[in-house]
Amino acid sequence: MKKQKIPFGTEEWCSKTTNCISGCSNNCKYCYAKSIAIRFGRKTPETWVNEEVNFKALNQKIKKIEGRIMYPSTHDITPTNLEISLQFLKKILSVGNEVLIVTKPHLEVIKKLCDELVNYKDKIIFRFTIGSIDSEVLKFWEPKAPSYEERKQSVIHAFNSGYQTSLSCEPVLDDSVESIVTELQDFVTETIWIGKMNFLKARMKINGFKDELSMQKANELFEMQSDEKIIELVDRLKDNPKIRWKESIKKVISNNN
Length: 257
Description:
Mean pLDDT: 95
Helix content: 25-40%
Distance between the termini: 25 Å
Oligomer: single chain
């Protein structure tokens, strides 16, 4: 009998991912996409922040698929690439696809998306990435991404605009995830995904963040995400019907069953 594959990463969320930008101005220290681009010589730690349009991807023929398409997965939707992203999203949606829009949200971006994509509202789920309720923590790990307050207002705006909304608390960046759940769950129509940091130090070193403070913060994060603390978190949130655990936490649950 063939062993069943356990979904990992974006496979837990969608059938297909697509992107049309190379690079990301958020410059997150833990970014998996940045580390891959550097390893394969497509970017350097310095040039990653330059958002370049991938015209081959942008101009590709889009077909209707079974399941949901996630956009983006290796960059974000920022004010710099908003118009290109809108063009690409309309192309994906116009042939009948369902789309999961994943972003560390800028409020101006979410307002524009909500206005421009209103005719496709029933085909869209927004998944907003929020790893901490503390804007200083967010700024350390995600230097050019929006503050917590801006992300919160983006969630509320999408919810009030009648869109399906969800949260990605992956990676969790400190011990405030329960505060995120408490504060925002009423504006979530779908699910709240929680996950640990993966391959943190290796990615940080590739991404150019090898300084003493960054390594110290990484060690502190490892301590916050010990198996014992993860199991305690799971126990406290187990009765919340909106909570979903990413594969990184499912492994901890399985190993400590």
